[in-house]
Design a protein that fits this description.
The structure is a homodimer. By secondary structure, the first copy, chain A, is an alpha+beta fold. Chain A has 2 domains: 82 residues, Winged helix-like DNA-binding domain superfamily/Winged helix DNA-binding domain (Arc Repressor Mutant, subunit A, Orthogonal Bundle); 49 residues, Ferric-uptake regulator, C-terminal dimerisarion domain (Dna Ligase, domain 1), CATH 3.30.1490. The first copy, chain A, contains 6 helices and 5 strands, in the order ααααββββαβα. In chain A, helix 2 crosses helix 3, helix 2 crosses helix 4 and helix 3 packs across helix 4. The interface between A and B is medium-sized, with 34 and 34 residues. The first copy, chain A, binds a DNA duplex through helix 2 and helix 4.
DNA sequence: TTAATTGCAAATCGTTTGCTGAAAG
DNA sequence: CTTTCAGCAAACGATTTGCAATTAA
């Protein structure tokens, strides 16, 4: 399997784009941090290593990361978009603590199958889905609210 | 069962709010139109009947409609929030055509059960969930794209 | 070279808010 | 009367964009 860096570089090449210093820094920062984060968070991490990289560049590169398949964006609703590693990661949905924001990745074959069936029953060709479960995590429900 | 209007009026009363002319117009416009719509769409419908109602008032009233239980808001992602009738309507999720935007309401007991189970397996107390399936509807896939 | 890219600041877009005059109870 | 509203326009926050200067190839 190709390395993530390799994938990104090929993606750039295939699209006549260049590997700039900024993109290198941003991609490295992205690859170093697993987990879920916002564009702002990535920007602030990048800023520490390279203060002159502007946030527009971070946004632009984040888009390239998604297009190249390295990253995945998911909309939590209420204007919050989170990014996570995608390359080499299996599909999953999220369970989010409504109180502390903790995120757990979940997958359920039964649900996936029923989703496909529901779409089909309505004559739709399913292209993608978004499912987020909100609840209170053990830590938050244990602590006296 | 109380009428939707009754519910709204009681909601206002219980919260020391008044039933203004504007609120009356907006609620009526809301009740007349089933289906999914954005805040902007409601505003434009209201504007036709009462041009001097401002959009801030529509936004504010829409929020009251949700709080009172008459309306339900759901986030389609990409910054799109849709509203629909909620009072007297059962829970459902949505199947959306990625091409023409057509929306079909869906429910699946199996999925609902699995969602609860998944939350429980992780020690979470499920409070709500959001599920949207995107696909191509029969009309759109039939027509030569 | 020469097209691609950056940083900056200004522009979006949907939604919210502060303020002041105006209705509701 | 006294409180809650409405309208307006300015404020927002996340993201995008135009542009002139800068780099990659």
């Amino acid at each position: 399997m190709k390395s993530a860096r390799q994938v990104f570089i090929e993606f750039l090449g295939d699209n006549g784009m260049s590997l700039t210093h900024q993109r290198r820094v941003i991609v490295e920062s992205f690859l170093e941090n697993e987990g879920h984060f916002t564009a702002e968070q990535l920007y602030s991490r990048v800023s520490k290593q390279a203060p002159d990289i502007g946030q527009a560049t971070v946004y632009r590169t984040l888009k390239l990361l998604v297009e190249s398949g390295l990253a995945d964006a998911f909309d939590l609703g209420e204007g919050v978009t989170l990014y996570e590693h995608h390359y080499g990661h299996a599909h999953h949905d999220h369970l989010v603590c409504a109180q502390c924001g903790r995120k757990v990745e979940i997958v359920d074959e039964t649900i996936e199958r029923r989703q496909a069936a529901l779409a089909e029953e309505n004559g739709f060709t399913l292209t993608r889905h978004r499912m987020v479960l909100f609840g209170i995590c053990p830590a938050c429900s244990g602590a006296a609210a």
